[in-house]
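User:
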Amino acid sequence: MNILEGQKLIKNKEYAKALTYFLNLKKKNIKNTSINFYLGLIYFEFNKFTKSIFYYNKFLKKEPKSEAGLLNLAIAKQAIGELVSAKELYLEIININQLNVRAYYGLYLLDINFLNDDLFKRLYEIFKDNKLNLYQKGIIDFLFSKKAKKDIENLKEIEHLKKSHKNFYNSNKAYNLSAQFYYNKVISKFFDKLNIEVKEKNNNEIDNELVNPIFIIGLPRSGSTLIESILTSSEENIISVGECNVFNTSIIDQIGPKIYSDKFDSKKFEFTINKEVLNKSIKEKYSQYSEIKLEKFIDKSLENFFNIELIKNIYPNAKFIHTFRNPLDSAISIYQSMLPDLSWTHNIEDILLYMDHYHKVLKYFKSKYSEIIMDINLEEFTEKSEGLTKKMFKFCGLTWNENIHNFYKRKDLYSKTLSFTQIRSKVLKYNDKKYQSYFNILNDYKDKYQWLDLSK
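Assistant: Predicted structure:
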């Protein structure tokens, strides 16, 4: 057994196997401090933050100057709301290496005011360094865009955003191209032409009929993390597996060899999924989260609006909470965010095209399965949170009580998303003027999409 084998498992996102592998290395008393680092990483993926932090700290006792260890520990602290500790860790990284641009981004996430003029001067100097990779350049231009926004320099802000998104896209171009191909040429064209291969009903399917999962679907920056935080505050102590992408990954595992073949012909393609294989894959992936044995769980993989048909076939009792906001606000908010792992978020044209797929797909499934999809409008929710929360809890079969209002005070509240600070305060009134000054960048597309109404 060696570290490289465990690293491969992590790279392939086989976290359960990786956990067993590294725990076995630890039992064998193999003297390699990186074992603790990888255990910290794996437990973070499982949302086991206490254990994650424990192993990162253990690793850092031996490697106190490790930038990767300090950074991952800061992110874990950030996720559980220990923001002061996270800030100290980010500053420690910068003291060790002023060129570590990810630490500057961490400070921004905590509070843009933590990036003072001196730190921005450092970033300007760093930016002159030709040794920076595309991802690092993307981060710096993104931070420059935030400074421009703070200084109310809209044109400068948009210019930096364009450069940032271009660098993020190109930093992982092969993956982004394949992801865009899947969204634009496959799933958006064949979601309603699904053929499910079914043999005899087996015990796994019977077990699935006892499970009542909740899937939060929609677009990023739509209030999904807020809704997740409220739902996990129920008396049932329901757990969330977050944005685990279990269904998307399992679907692509089956059809990937077909769609990513040189011989792929969309006119001859049949979107066929073997239910038994899919069920097995999903069970294995969800089993990495031990609590999934519970009757209820939440999956917040937002792209699952594409997968409603398959989810309903695997989990007959599944419910879907669709969070959304004004589409104009949604488009601008996504563009102004740093979401490097989402291939379609790096220019306005791709964002609007993805949103068009989303509107079309949701319309189809809401017509077909209206009884299992509940809409939550973020703007309305901020004004009528109590009434809508009660309706949502009833829809999901959860128990509502007065303490739900205080969800943001929970000590066990965590978030890996960009909303980790927002969920730690009471629900605030929606600001419908926040993005108006940016609507002009959507003008070129106003006649292309019916849902893009710039006249209001």
